[in-house]
Amino acid sequence: MPLTFTLDPAVTPALRDGVVELWTNVSNAGGAVGFVPPVSREEIRPELVRHLVAMAEGRTRLLVGQDAAGEVAATAFLTFNTHRLMRHWVWLYTVMVHPKHQGRGYGRDLLAAAADAARGFDGITAIRLTCRGGLGLERFYGGCGYKEVGRVPGAIRVADGDDRDDITMLLPLT
Known about the structure:
With 174 residues, this protein is α+β, with helices and mostly antiparallel strands.
């Protein structure tokens, strides 16, 4: 059964808890979403609060995918640029699909929904994202139409002796 995607859902306690739960599960399954396992909900919650503040200020939009039971199964944050010369593209952050839903095409569905959402924003012609090297994510994003446009070797330190490339990907929307 496909996910139902909503842009800018009402931020209820259930939604906040669902996003924190998703983020915790994805992180602890080894997902490259800003944390290294093991991580707790309490460690993730302040990062979500930062995203929620950006949403309240109109700088970030939230896309949520819910499963048939109404549970948060996928998310992505679309963030607008504040630099006057870069307002024609958005960043895509914290792209997550719950581990129990992976392998069903929901990641591709999430990226397609994010691209559809971005196409609805005034003046937006592209999406940029970064991903952590060493996990094959650039191949996944490439299969969804993104092109690798930059790479900084060893820019992400996952642990002592485990440095990964920071890869920038771009999806033109026109």
